[in-house]
Design brief:
465 residues, mainly alpha, 3% strand
């Protein structure tokens, strides 16, 4: 596990530990309430978004969240909704935090073979949430208070990376019995998660096949442990008892087949967009049967390393393969925009939006095209539509700011430029544009707009270095 992964994992786990089971609240934390946990969850969520590169592409996140919701609806009633983020990092990892938050790493998506394998990991993490394992450990240990944990985490976040790692690591060492999942916790998460997996319509064998795949990854990599194994130990033992249980299940459950078309689609996009481009191209070249997804992957990867002629050929083949898929239209439109064919880009993006009005990336790029053509009001409306879908997309805020600046609305220009830098974690520029917006907030309407910016600045800046 890398330094940054270790840091955030322990911070998230530390936050999670600070939340007791409902029947322990009065004994351990006095007035600690569901609203307190909700506030902690927001802080953890904000922490993750400031420390990691979050994927906000709805094509990817909607798919992952749909799996999560399919599992979650089979859990007992919970005090919080399930909220899943996708982190752009090649670690084979996933973790759950307080108040129903879960994080899935792009590396996990790439290394699973099927949707049900991916769902099995998410089901296990969901079970850790619903069974409140760390909270129960806190109840038994009666060692750590919310105040001391928050103080330590705040100190780690406000200090240097190295200092933070030492601070959090020392706490983890001192309270190792509390921080770690016990064998009983892991067994329960496997069993409860397996129930969620089956109830959601997946093949139960996916849970053991996912674990076995991780073990093979360890062997083939010469002993380097995938991140998930280091934080969820005892994999061999767990595979054995799960296999015994699954073998005795109804044969109809074991014969279930899952449609992997959406999984392969998202996996292709993640590989092409976020994996190392040359390795992605090598992967796509090895595919024996050229499909629409192969052309998509090759086109994105070639464009990332400026192989323009190859990428253009890939996207021509892609649109010839299927000219009615919003994802294909979007990606081809983005390519042609980036490499200067604005008219063709506009036609493709407009068609993508017509077929899928919530296609935020197409909305952003089409807004940029309209802006370049001088249609500022219409361009602003497209970018505003995109921000209703992905409100923390810094690029959309930046382009909207430039449109407002060109049209003479300096107040809104500074508002959106400040948002852009807030979500890019650029303290100096975010502060500069916030001050400019403050100076221009001369009426009640502008002051109301400024309040939302101040809240976003405050929430994000508490975790800046």
């Amino acid at each position: 596990m890398t330094h940054r992964i270790r840091l955030v994992f322990f911070i998230c786990l530390t936050f999670f530990m600070s939340v007791p089971a409902p029947n322990a609240q009065a004994r351990l934390f006095g007035e600690f309430s569901i609203s307190d946990e909700a506030e902690l969850g927001k802080k953890v969520h904000r922490l993750i978004r400031t420390r990691f590169d979050i994927i906000d592409d709805p094509e990817i996140t909607d798919y992952i969240r749909e799996i999560g919701q399919n599992l979650y609806k089979n859990a007992p009633p919970q005090p919080f909704p399930l909220q899943v983020e996708v982190i752009n990092h090649n670690a084979v990892n996933a973790f759950a935090t307080v108040a129903g938050y879960m994080a899935i790493f792009s590396g996990l998506i790439l290394h699973m073979d099927s949707e049900d394998q991916l769902a099995s990991i998410m089901a296990h993490e969901l079970a850790h949430i619903t069974q409140r394992h760390v909270a129960r450990n806190i109840e038994r240990s009666k060692v750590i208070s919310v105040g001391s944990l928050l103080g330590l985490v705040a100190g780690a976040l406000l200090g240097s990376d190295a200092g933070g790692a030492i601070a959090v690591g020392s706490i983890a060492g001192a309270q190792s019995a509390v921080l770690k999942y016990s064998r009983e916790d892991e067994r329960e998460a496997d069993q409860v998660g397996l129930g969620y997996l089956i109830a959601a319509g997946y093949n139960p064998q996916a849970m053991t096949s996912a674990m076995q795949k991780m073990r093979r990854m360890q062997w083939f990599s010469g002993g380097e442990i995938p991140s998930y194994l280091s934080t969820h130990p005892g994999m061999d033992e767990r595979v054995n008892y799960l296999s015994d249980r699954i073998e005795r299940m109804d044969k109809n459950l074991l014969a279930r087949e899952v449609d992997n078309s959406s999984f392969l689609r998202v996996q292709t996009l993640v590989r092409a967009r976020y994996a190392e481009p040359s390795s992605a191209l090598a992967y796509f070249r090895e595919e024996k049967n050229q499909t629409c997804l192969t052309y998509l992957g090759q086109g994105i990867a070639n464009a990332r390393i400026n192989r323009v002629s190859e990428a253009r050929k890939n996207f021509e083949e892609l649109i010839s393969c299927d000219d009615s898929d919003p994802l294909f239209l979007r990606e081809a439109g983005i390519f042609y925009f980036q490499f200067g064919d604005i008219d063709k880009s506009g036609r493709l993006l407009q068609k993508a939006i017509m077929l899928r009005p919530q296609e935020s990336m197409a909305l952003i790029y089409y807004g940029r095209i309209l802006s370049e053509q001088g249609h500022f009001d219409t361009a602003a409306s497209y970018l505003q539509r995109a921000l209703r879908i992905v409100p923390e997309e810094p690029g959309a805020h930046e382009h909207l700011a430039r449109i407002f600046g060109r049209s003479g609305n300096n107040f809104m220009a500074h508002i959106h430029m400040s948002y852009a830098h807030i979500y890019n974690n650029n303290k100096r520029q975010a502060s500069f544009h916030r001050e400019k917006a403050r100076e221009l907030a001369v009426d009640s309407e502008k002051k109301a707009v400024l309040i939302s910016l101040e809240e976003a600045f405050r929430d994000q800046s508490q975790f800046w270095k």
